[in-house]
């Protein structure tokens, strides 16, 4: 980003047709574009009685963004007016043509006639209305111009009009050379472009203070609510540099530059802009005017606090801690309790990177409630709930705490925190393995309307909460075998959060994980291996875990075991309990494949103890299924069937389709193994029941296109049909098995040595 100090003393008198005496002191000035707007207002007053209600309504909706927005080309202004009222657009064009092709006295007379709009008992325009204030500002700015400046304005008006005439001539020539079909396509494309798209509005010259404030507020609102509608990072930075070129002390422009740099993760530029923002805030005296002598110190402590937040965002925890200590010191000297509460919240965030402590957080929540800071108090409750969820607290207690925070949200209309709370509930239910409840919460958030007023056409709620919920929704659909629906959700995510946006990494990770699972189900391990690098770049722990899964599937047992052992030590160190349990289950499976069945039992019992301690019900059920499989291998299928009935219900209610299929396949295996000691009649009933369970497992596996598991089920069914003497069904299963067996490689692993 170019340095703003290069233009500290640049103060032009005329730039790009803009006449002004001092860009730092004048709030508004006359430009050719604003003269065109004055002509529009004049013609609107004349044609008022003749216009229909719909046309007047359209013009009134058009006027406000025209008055507040940056200058635009005359052709675009004409097009915008034509869409509302073609007759009025023609009148404006004729009036401007007469003025531009006439003499200087015509422009003088035009400004003299503007004052008549306020005369009479029932004036056309009220002085205090939006239009009235604009007219008065323009008349005042014109009257302050010297004769030479009036002449320059008139020359600029002529150039403004002639440029539009030349463009019309070029368009006519192009129409003669273009065939009608191409012309229709071009016109349709132009009609699709709205008249006031921010991408089409360029700040070619210095903006007035009102225009600049409108531009900055609009871009800041778009960055918060719908980043896709805001200018691209490079384009926005160019416009901001242009603003700062004419007014380097414009503090708000520096802050928007800071937000823009955060979008592209530019730590140097964001730090540079943030420091300049607070420097300009102090230099211009904006804080001192509103806060008395306290303003200077207030800027300093909040500057240090924002700098700490910036460093924490980029992972510079040592620098963040130093900046936070400075903010705390200044806030204590000034006895600023509000700033101290913000500091306390950030202190907790920094402390939890080192060790888990609820003391700071509980103190922060109590103090925030005491000083009437509901936003901070709610964020503290959300963080406390999240920490206690990872600590294994009961779900009902966490939901009660979130209910209390929801009361704060609705009482104070904190819509952003309402979204965060629902997204938090979705994630908690997913952590506890209750996918049905997670789906319900996700749908609740997506069906809600934002409490914040945003412009028409702006996508509401383009926040991290919505990105998280949509990602969970995509994964839930993929787990149930609805891959087309998951692809549609991910496609929507890509449109709503482009790759250069700050929340794009969320859907990128989920997209890679879903592709990985599909490749593994399909037996395409080389494809899954190629996806590991992308997952690792976004989440190193997930990447290492998935690499171990690929190695295990490729029968590289020793390499997979080494990787899983390293990952287990790391996850235990950082207290990632969910991943610890998953790693333990994978290690147990490695022991099965290596025929070390007795060694797998202590590992599974350790995983089960952790899952129950941290209330991870679904992982506990999955661990019980693995224990049942171990008992089947060790020759006690009756005991395996007993514990299966305890664990299979949560899997069938909330589990992924693949897990449901594996569970039903395991039940069938246990039924067959138990039938060996039954009477002939009871044995036939048990085998027929096992065949029904295999049919259900086959349906689940087919839904996620898991060919390896399908092959195993068909083999097992063929053997059972052969035992029961059902030759036709046996031959059908054998044929299907042969087709799959030819497509898939055989790893030489016995059928009974693999649970999943």
From TrEMBL:
Alphabetical UniProt keywords: Cell cycle, Cell division, Cytoplasm, Cytoskeleton, Mitosis, Nucleus, Phosphoprotein, Repeat, TPR repeat, Ubl conjugation pathway
Occurrences of domain Anaphase-promoting complex subunit (ranges): 254-353
Pathway(s): Protein modification; protein ubiquitination
Keyword Phosphoprotein: yes
One GO BP annotation of this record: positive regulation of mitotic metaphase/anaphase transition
Cell location: Cytoplasm, Cytoskeleton, Spindle; Nucleus
Database matches in InterPro entries: Apc5 (IPR037679), Apc5_dom (IPR026000), Apc5_N (IPR048968), TPR-like_helical_dom_sf (IPR011990), TPR_rpt (IPR019734)
CDD domains: Apc5_N
Residue stretches making up the Anaphase-promoting complex subunit 5 N-terminal domain: 30-167
One GO location term (cellular component): anaphase-promoting complex
Pfam families reported in the protein's UniProt record: ANAPC5, Apc5_N
Keyword match Phosphoprotein: yes
Chain segments annotated as coiled-coil in the UniProt record: none
Family matches, as PANTHER family: ANAPHASE-PROMOTING COMPLEX SUBUNIT 5 (PTHR12830)
Similarity annotation: Belongs to the APC5 family.
Physiological role: Component of the anaphase promoting complex/cyclosome (APC/C), a cell cycle-regulated E3 ubiquitin ligase that controls progression through mitosis and the G1 phase of the cell cycle. The APC/C complex acts by mediating ubiquitination and subsequent degradation of target proteins: it mainly mediates the formation of 'Lys-11'-linked polyubiquitin chains and, to a lower extent, the formation of 'Lys-48'- and 'Lys-63'-linked polyubiquitin chains. The APC/C complex catalyzes assembly of branched 'Lys-11'-/'Lys-48'-linked branched ubiquitin chains on target proteins.
The name this protein goes by in its record: Anaphase-promoting complex subunit 5
Organism expressing this protein natively: Toxostoma redivivum (California thrasher)
Taxon lineage: Eukaryota, Metazoa, Chordata, Craniata, Vertebrata
Gene, per the UniProt record: Anapc5
